[in-house]
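for the writeup, i need someone to sanity check this before i put it in the appendix. the sequnce is what the collaborator sent (i think, or maybe the updated version? ugh). structure was predicted straight from it, no edits. if anything looks off just tell me and ill rerun, i have time this weekend
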Amino acid sequence: MFYERVIFVVSMTNSKKDYQKILASVQKPVIGEAGKTGTWSKLKPIIDLGKCIPVKSGKPSCFNCWLFCPEAVITRTIPPRIDLEYCKGCGICMEECPVKAIKMVEEKSK
């Protein structure tokens, strides 16, 4: 059987606008889609602001924690903040942090 390969060439006249259209078509996680999931794990991420690249540089750089968080509970601000009411404690943010600024800490019983 013969398959024809089709290649689409996109003319990028206004690359920023075209890039935004592409990003808008990507599905994004929504905070609270599964309810308040912060009680699902006893482990909670804590950011060491002394190690965090955006905090140290004062520039919006890195943000791997924000990018890889499957629950979208980390803000892309300086300093980054984690909404612990919705954080499931999966630890992906800790694994993706290039400077190991995030530690998973056991939450104390209330």
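The longest strand covers residues 43-47. The first helix runs from residue 15 to 24.
thx in advance!!
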